Amino acid sequence: MTELKKDIQQALNAFSTQDTYTAAINFWKSLGYRSDRIPDVVSYDNMEMFTQAFADRHIINPAKVIADDWVSFSVLFQLTDKEINEMCSTEVQSDIFSDFGRMVNNTIINSYLFVSLELSGKAYTRTELATITREINRCFAMPVLVLFKYNMLLTLSVINRRLHKIDSNKDVLEKVTLIKDICYLKPHRAHIETLALLSFTQLTNKVRIDSFVKLHNTWQKVLDVKEINDRFFREIRNWFLWSLKHIRFPQIRPADEMEEAKEYQSKSIIRFITRFMFCWFLKEKKDIIPSD
């Protein structure tokens, strides 16, 4: 796990020296995802060029995707059952940019299309990035996973899609999940850990993944807000229990105010954890507590 996190950090750092397309390909390789399914044309210099190439399914509204900020859009690769099984040392045939083919939660689906989009703005809201993700997805038959780059930051955007309840020939774009504002020069530990959990190696340590359906469901579980919160509180609880065994806070108070030792230690550790978390929150808000 330590080596994996180191590889991820190095891949993130490379965005400062490599072009976005190359850095994005290497970033996904660091997580264990790779594919030879690459189109003849991989990069488009602006939104107009992108629209000309992919307008047969949907005409994008330039205002919705903040078209003036588009620097470059790149199709990285398509990941299907074939690539997943190759990583598992088996083989399944599939055509490049194939349409849906399996059911996942009432959605026909058999691949992700990995793309990158570099933007010129300094900051974007969750709503803006989610809207761009939805508009891009409307141009393709399969779910599109977008890696945004802007102002020395990255955001990973994953969308969930399902079949239309009335028209089975259509699909509905549902929730967009973001791993937002990853600083690729000095990535936050929490971002590194989340990305590590999404790596193919870590996923297959817990679940046998031999198809895109299983990969899709496992990704959704890792990125689920409830699951993230549960992991966070499990770590806090484990730290609390460890602290009870190894940390002792002295009782500097009059004898008649002394508390029972076990209760006092528990209260003291809880106070310490909550104060530490508050300081961490202030540090994350920038300019209040310095990072260094």
Low confidence ranges? 90-108, 164-168
Series of H and E elements: HHEHEHEHEEEHHHHH
Distance between the termini: 25 Å
Strand element count: 6
How confident is the prediction overall: mean pLDDT?
A: 80
* Outline type: elongated
Largest sheet: 6 strands, mixed
Helices, by number, come to 10
- Measured by DSSP, the beta-strand proportion falls in 15-25%
Task: Return the structural class.
Answer: alpha+beta
What's the helical proportion of residues? Answer: 40-55%
Radius of gyration: 23 Å
Give, in spatial order, the strands making up the sheet with the most strands.
1-2-3-4-5-6
Molecular structure report:
With 292 residues, the protein is an alpha+beta fold. 43% of the residues lie in helices and 18% in strands. It has helices at residues 2-13, 20-30, 47-54, 81-87, 126-137, 189-198, 200-206, 212-223, 225-246, 261-284, and strands at 43-44, 70-80, 111-119, 144-150, 153-163, 171-183. It has a six-stranded mixed β-sheet, with helices on both faces. Strand 3, helix 5 and strand 4 form a beta-alpha-beta unit. Helix 1 runs antiparallel to helix 2, helix 1 (2-13) packs across helix 6 (189-198) and helix 9 crosses helix 10 (261-284). The longest helix is centred in the last third of the chain and has 24 residues, at 261-284. It starts with a helix and ends in an 8-residue tail after the last helix. 25% of the residues are buried.
